[in-house]
Amino acid sequence: MALLSPIERASLAERLPLWRPVSGRQALKRGFHFIDFKQAFAFMTQVALLAERRDHHPEIYNLYNRVELILTSHDVGGLSMRDVQMAEEIDTFAPR
Amino acid sequence: MALLSPIERASLAERLPLWRPVSGRQALKRGFHFIDFKQAFAFMTQVALLAERRDHHPEIYNLYNRVELILTSHDVGGLSMRDVQMAEEIDTFAPR
């Protein structure tokens, strides 16, 4: 899995409008809000199962009802299509 | 639940030798290493169930096989005995 090309990177804002670049890193992040910790952890569990299935693991940060995910491909040192595809799949079950 | 007294704070290094102060914050942190993500997430799930039972929720940070927990009592703006007791209970099931 290769790094995204400059053209692919330029298309990210349109393809993944809910994800943002991470300052100083080749990575994408999205924050999520929930009613309470139970809902946040249920979401984290969905992400965990997806991460195991894809063998691609986001950084997960949780504080009570808030979750932040950061996606990057450590093996290629930046963003790959694995990150894009994972972000798209997370968006299918994440709250808007 | 009140803030720890100065004497109680001074005893933390001895009472919780695996936990460290967080720079610039009234909080305690501990890092944990596991064989893989599955083991790390199993531990996070134990922490989540404990957090719900005690109604006291640590900050949780995870990257693949590593977990970091940060404990503080937001309601009193610093460390309370709730943090100390939770750290002690986490230590009973965490890897050394």
From TrEMBL, chains A, B:
<dbReference type="GO" id="GO:0008124">
    <property type="term" value="F:4-alpha-hydroxytetrahydrobiopterin dehydratase activity"/>
</dbReference>
<dbReference type="GO" id="GO:0006729">
    <property type="term" value="P:tetrahydrobiopterin biosynthetic process"/>
</dbReference>
<keyword id="KW-0456">Lyase</keyword>
<dbReference type="Pfam" id="PF01329">
    <property type="entry name" value="Pterin_4a"/>
</dbReference>
<comment type="similarity">
    <text>Belongs to the pterin-4-alpha-carbinolamine dehydratase family.</text>
</comment>
<protein>
    <recommendedName>
        <fullName>Putative pterin-4-alpha-carbinolamine dehydratase</fullName>
        <ecNumber>4.2.1.96</ecNumber>
    </recommendedName>
</protein>
<dbReference type="InterPro" id="IPR001533">
    <property type="entry name" value="Pterin_deHydtase"/>
</dbReference>
<dbReference type="InterPro" id="IPR036428">
    <property type="entry name" value="PCD_sf"/>
</dbReference>
